[in-house]
Write a structure and sequence with these properties.
71% helix, mainly alpha, 2 helices
């Protein structure tokens, strides 16, 4: 029995979707409402703190790393041009 590309793609997609669904199901927080003994969550973050931590800080870190790479790249071009 020959298997064509369409059937292989469908099989691969089904396997991928099934694996993703199983992973999501297994990692879902079971009984998350019930607190454990000794569980002491801290105060929540404000909107400004959340945006700063999860948006501004990664973007700033990316820009700093990109700037350092660009400065290092320009230094190498000057050296090779002088040789």
């Amino acid at each position: 029995m020959k298997t064509n590309a369409k059937t292989k793609a469908l099989r691969a997609g089904t396997l991928t979707a099934g694996t993703a669904a199983l992973t999501a199901l297994l990692t879902s927080p079971a009984l998350a409402v019930v607190r454990d003994d000794g569980d002491d969550p801290g105060p929540g973050l404000s909107i400004v703190e959340t945006l700063g931590l999860y948006v501004v800080a990664p973007v700033a870190l990316f820009l700093v790393i990109a700037a350092l790479i660009m400065v290092g790249d320009k230094t190498d071009k000057r050296r090779s041009a002088n040789d």
